[in-house]
Amino acid sequence: xxxxxxxxxxxxxxxxxxxxxxxxxxxxxxxxxxxxxxxxxxxxxxxxxxxxxxxxxxxxxxxxxxxxxxxxxxxxxxxxxxxxxx
Length: 86
Description:
Blueprint: E1 2-3, E2 11-17, E3 37-43, E4 56-60, E5 63-66, E6 69-73, E7 76-81
Parallel strand pairs: 3-6
Antiparallel strand pairs: 1-2, 2-3, 4-7, 5-6
């Protein structure tokens, strides 16, 4: 997750990793996915409630490229599960 200094335009960014892995064909109806990582960026925010390391998400939005990595700006999201902290 990335936070901007107060002097710059605020945004909240995280890299989401697909835990199914590149060989798992359950996603996309049996077709292999083109990537396993996705940068997610929420503009104008310094944090997004519920988004933290270990959270499983479902994202919905348009995908573009940012610095060679697929990215989504301001996606709709659903929190599917949270990792329990011991």
